[in-house]
Write a structure and sequence with these properties.
The protein has 71 residues and is an alpha+beta fold. The protein has a domain of 46 residues. The protein has one helix and two strands; from the N terminus they run αββ. The chain is flat.
Length: 71
């Protein structure tokens, strides 16, 4: 019984992951700004605004920082 549940769970995760990957491909940033240049590498800030956004709209924001992988 456990074996069947594990197989069903793996299949379910595979299907959900595939549909999530398809949905993510449609997202594009509203603006890309270079905020720092190190030697020949440009570090970019990707800004995502709601479709009806104007400069005077005051809405909450979420900021994600990714500093790269660790070895």
């Amino acid at each position: 019984m456990k074996k069947h549940l594990v197989i069903i769970f793996i299949i379910l995760l595979t299907v959900l992951n595939a549909t999530a990957q398809e949905a993510i491909t449609d997202i594009t940033p509203s603006k890309i700004t270079v905020y720092k240049t190190v030697d020949e590498t440009s570090l970019s800030l990707h800004i995502f605004n709601p479709p009806d956004h104007t400069i005077d709209n005051k809405k909450p924001a979420i900021v994600f920082f990714f500093s790269g992988g660790f070895i």
